[in-house]
Write a structure and sequence with these properties.
The protein is of the alpha/beta class. 45% of the residues lie in helices and 17% in strands. Strands 2-1-3-4-5 form a 5-stranded parallel β-sheet, sandwiched between helices.
Length: 134
């Protein structure tokens, strides 16, 4: 039997314009031990990113102003090059294969449709981080 997945020690940046979504995602991840910084826009995310240095990015796609696709492209282009390796999850209401392909092409490693089950979200984050550490 595998030990339960844990997010203890992970620093996660959540970007979502919806207050309820930010609260839900933060609550789920913190309950499993992660430290979460949740921000409402791509602009704020870009400001906090250098200081925060997150282990994982979880980002909504459909946001006013800059969307998640634009944000991940900007992050991937930042110097130093450490940002091109930041594990990133697109968490969005747009769940079909076209949006999945678009998210992966933009620079996300994973595309997850909302609403997401808490256990599934923890597993997705833990597995993504584990794949980057191996």
């Amino acid at each position: 039997m595998e030990p339960p997945l844990s997010l203890a020690g992970l620093n996660i940046l959540v970007v979502d314009d919806d207050d309820d979504s930010r609260f839900y995602i933060t609550t789920v991840l913190e309950a499993d031990g992660a430290t979460v910084t949740a921000v409402p826009s791509a602009g704020v995310a870009l400001k906090v990113l250098p200081e925060l240095q997150p282990d994982v990015l979880i980002c909504d796609i459909a946001m006013p102003g800059e969307d998640g696709y634009t944000l991940i492209r900007k992050i991937r282009a930042l110097k130093p090059d450490i940002w091109e390796k930041l594990p990133a999850i697109a968490l969005t209401a747009y769940g079909d294969s076209e949006y999945r392909s678009r998210a992966l092409e933009a620079g996300f490693q994973s595309h997850v449709a909302k609403p997401v089950d808490p256990g599934q979200l923890v597993a997705i984050v833990a597995n993504l981080v584990a794949s980057y550490q191996s």
